[in-house]
Amino acid sequence: MAIELPENLKQKTPLSNIEEAAYLWILVTAEHLKAETAELFKQQDLTAPQYNVLRILRGAGAEGLCGREVGDRMITRDSDITRMLDRLEGRGLIRRERQTEDRRFVLAFITKAGLDTLAKLDRPIVAWHRKRLAHLSESEMRTMTGLLKKVLKG
Amino acid sequence: MAIELPENLKQKTPLSNIEEAAYLWILVTAEHLKAETAELFKQQDLTAPQYNVLRILRGAGAEGLCGREVGDRMITRDSDITRMLDRLEGRGLIRRERQTEDRRFVLAFITKAGLDTLAKLDRPIVAWHRKRLAHLSESEMRTMTGLLKKVLKG
DNA sequence: TGACAATAGTTGTTATAACAGCTATTATTC
DNA sequence: GAATAATAGCTGTTATAACAACTATTGTCA
């Protein structure tokens, strides 16, 4: 039995290759969800990576994080953390401070303005997640994340 | 029970929100797979969207496709098909031709050079897919794609 | 038929991503 | 302790993405 593909792809020759189909479903679904959340972030003039960085820094709290650590924690790898932080700093959403012990590190912290910006998004985002996945049971979500985890670790 | 998150995210406060966890797993897995395949495409100096376009045009064959149709079939929405096709045309991988019946349409076709480029990638890519997902059973892949489909349609 | 809407594509502009090479600082090793 | 490697981050450049305004062509309908 040929496996179904995302509609829009409209592949004529049904893929014989179930692995490629699985791969495509993961990518297409991710892309779709990403596009939807991008709309939410835009309310506060943030891109998805920018929102991601702010959340990371909120999580880090008063200790802050250096650029490399921020990069490691991101969902999508960003090849240029420096200038991304530049922009956020320029908007006053974060601040930076060079460490004195090891002067190679520049720690980044979220500011009050950054926290306020995030706060305005918190409720809509939780609401979006709940609503967007409301039609899956908890067990379905666990099964799916379990399988995705297996894919990732592979 | 708190659901596990992708390692690198290192969230301190475990998410209470299983929906958000599911969402993150989808995105992180997709991102990871995308990064791996990007390496393959780079062998032929192609980005993932460029490879995607060439495959779409190969699928379309001698009939070709107009820009909008190409855009519809892409995995990741591209906001600027025109210039992406410009670049591929500049490299001789595709050619374009304005339709005579309805002069609004510009049809794109893959060239011999484009087909050759794709051909060099076909085997490595099939091999990559098989190897990358070899540790999942066919039934696991079907379950996963079924759930992803449910997410997407939601 | 003529105004207006719809569609396909192009172009200009700005922001961001990708890549490579660079400086500053600290760790390692002989 | 000097040479070297390793790490963090910065900078320059090019390519691409995102957004909006614009042209050309065709469809709709009073």
Q: TL;DR of this structure?
A:
With 154 residues, chain A is mainly alpha-helical. Chain A has helices at residues 18-42, 48-60, 67-73, 81-90, 112-132, 138-153, and strands at residues 65-66, 94-98, 106-110. In chain A, strands 1-3-2 form a 3-stranded antiparallel beta sheet.
Jot down its keywords.
mainly alpha; 6 helices; homodimer; DNA-binding; 60% helix; 154 residues; three-stranded antiparallel β-sheet
Write structural notes for this entry.
Two copies of one chain form a homodimer. Chain A is mostly helical and 154 residues long. Helix content of chain A is 60%, strand content 8%. Chain A has six helices and three strands, in the order H-H-E-H-H-E-E-H-H. In chain A, a hairpin with a 7-residue loop joins strand 2 and strand 3. At the A-B interface, helix 1, helix 5 and helix 6 of A face helix 1, helix 5 and helix 6 of B. Chain A binds a DNA duplex (30 and 30 nucleotides) through helix 4.
Oligomer: homodimer
Provide the helix percentage of chain A.
55-70%
Low-confidence parts of chain A, pLDDT < 50 over ≥5 residues?
A: none
First CA to last CA of chain A: what distance?
Answer: 25 Å
Rg over alpha carbons of chain A = 19 Å
Helix count of chain A equals 6
Q: Write the element-wise H/E pattern of chain A from the N-terminal end onward.
A: HHEHHEEHH
Number of strands of chain A: 3
**Beta fraction of chain A:** 5-15%
> What strand line-up does the widest sheet of chain A have?
1-3-2
Greatest chain-chain interface? A-B, 56 and 56 residues
Helix and strand content put the structural class of chain A at mainly alpha
Q: Please tell me what the overall shape of chain A is.
A: elongated
Largest sheet of chain A: 3 strands, antiparallel
What do the pLDDT scores of chain A average to? 90
